[in-house]
Amino acid sequence: MAGSPRDQNLHLQCPLCRSRLTVDRETGAVIDATAPAGSRKDFEDVLGDLKSADQRREEDFSQAFKVEKKRTELLDRKFEAAKEKAEKDPKKRINPMDYD
């Protein structure tokens, strides 16, 4: 994509964003960058993207909160059941702290 062999600049295309770059051969510095046509977004589009991302984060947080609340309730029920089972057990448990 280079011009004439005597041209001091390289003309490249970015594989990620398809921008056209002009690079100085000697310094390696980007002299010019031209964005591809049709790639610009309107301010309203960007704002809408941000609002929808915010809404998705809120939904994810509320779902995670519900799951954690259910998990806490389940652990509380399991603890109470284990405590009742331990109270009904006829064996006396020795506290490891009593070995002193």
Helices, strands, pairings?
Layout: E1 9-13, E2 20-24, E3 30-34, H1 43-88
Antiparallel strand pairs: 1-2, 2-3
Kindly provide the radius of gyration, computed on alpha-carbon positions and rounded to a whole number of angstroms. Answer: 33 Å
Average pLDDT level? 85
Number of helices: 1
Q: Beta fraction of the residues?
A: 15-25%
Features:
single chain, 100 residues, alpha+beta, 2 domains, three-stranded antiparallel beta sheet
Descriptive notes:
There is one protein chain. A hairpin with a 5-residue loop joins β2 and β3 (30-34). The chain has one helix spanning 43-88; strands at residues 9-13, 20-24, 30-34. By secondary structure, it is an alpha+beta fold. A three-stranded antiparallel beta sheet has the order 1-2-3, with no helix packed on it. It is built from one helix and three strands.
